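Practice problem: predict the structure.
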Amino acid sequence: MRVKKIFNNNVVLGVDEHGAETVFLGRGLGFQVKPGDLVDAGRVERQFVPQAMPAERLAALAAEIPLREIEVMEEVVSAARVQLGGNISEHILLPLADHVHFALARARSGARIEYPLKWEIENLYPAETRMGRVALDIIEQRLGVRMDATEALPVALHFVNAQIGSGDIAATVQMTQWLRVALETIGEDFGIEIDQHSMSVARFITHLRYLFLRARDGKQSPEVGDEIGEAVRNAKPLEYACAERLAHRMEEMFDWAVGREELLYLALHVSRLTVGDDTAEGTGTDG
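Answer:
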């Protein structure tokens, strides 16, 4: 791997013989180095293969953040992986460190931001919100700065983003807005108070996350036979009508089509949610 571009003494962009790019971090890695030199493997402390953003943008991002803050974020990501599962990958590290870097600057200056999705994040993503608060504790312990409690919310969104495999935090914000609309729509249609902390709601939100991603990517759930589809429509007309309304809301908000199979699965999940059966076993339709 040879050096393509030096960003500072600690960050270089490398390229292999096939043109594949990798961002390398390490103290002194870029000192007295020029393009074309071999990357000093002995100085490399961590490396990143670009995923959701161009390699140069990723390297520029890393160059703006002190290595100590990146190290602390590595600890946060490791803790999140234990609490939330292995889907929390390394790809979250630099975007999360970038956010925290500016949040630390706000905390040091006494500035405070109100996040408009506070209710949605706390109620739709309780596990990620708890992990966001743990992250603030780790940051305070390691860096000596206590950030405002509301900063746990965007950190939680980064964890959600990592789990659904979206490279764009804006898409996660859109999905969060859609989830609230969906739950409000069901409550209106059935005249019920939905318990945001129930297992049935947690399962429903999981299904909607995957539905959102499939619709965004133009994919569909596995096909369902005509007889099964007709049986669902006949047996659960109110739930199916609600599913159609949810699909229409999605199409209005994002201009994405929701297919027949998705409607059937969605109707089944609406049925489970409105019954409120927290002991029912999964149907295998969450993904």
